[in-house]
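Entry 14. Structure prediction run on the chain below.
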Amino acid sequence: MKKRICRLLLAFLLVLVFCVSMAAAEQTGAQLSCVTDTAGLLSENEKMLLERMAESVSQKYGVGVYIVTVEDYRDFHSEGVYKATYTIYHQYTMGVGPNRDGIMLLLSMADRDWAMFCYGSHCEYAFNSYGQEKLEKVFLDNFGEDDWYGGFEDYVKECRVYLEKAANGKPVRASLFFPMLVVIGLSLLAAIAIVAVIWQKMDNVSEKATANAYVAAGLRLTEQTDRFTHKTTSSRKIERSSSSGGSSRSESGGGGSGRSGKF
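Output returned:
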């Protein structure tokens, strides 16, 4: 009798879990799992571990965390990897909740392109432009060494950190300390320059730099000559620096924002 009751309870729990999963699928409508590795960068065990991590973060904070790898982004959009990313996001109805909040990282292996797409008000609150720029540094170093699992793992873990801070009302934002330090430094330099100009004018008045000041004392000069014994000039050329490899840029479109570049 007890075994029968236990079996009935187990069956009930399984049905309940199935119903919850179906309800969640209907709510989000997502047609892709958290990890979609069509480029075959991950082993089955690595894919399973990342799927569990990303799904846990997505369910806890109500923002989908997605990883997608493809052979060539041009199969989805020919005008750029970022446009391909948000095309996939919308085509497969990605996201969590009624507003389909989510963040998606796409790797395209043909030319080693990547893009990150952030959609929904909750997601963009947690991952603003500054936060996205900081986030990319977490995984790009791994991808540069072909450490795919390490890069994706760092990405999911950092997404958890960002979402946790946003949930506590303290999202990742740029510090105001260094901008304030720069303003203070520039103000001090401006003050020093003004004092230096005033001091120079006072010196010019007191020194009486030309020989005419001695005429009143009875000394007459038949010739007045001002000579410059040496001349000093300085110049500085400002050059625009350029970088290649691993470069990235901010993007917008598809109703959200993100970044893209090469790894």
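Residues 6-28, 177-183, 228-245 have pLDDT under 50 and may be disordered.
Filed with the rest of this week's runs.
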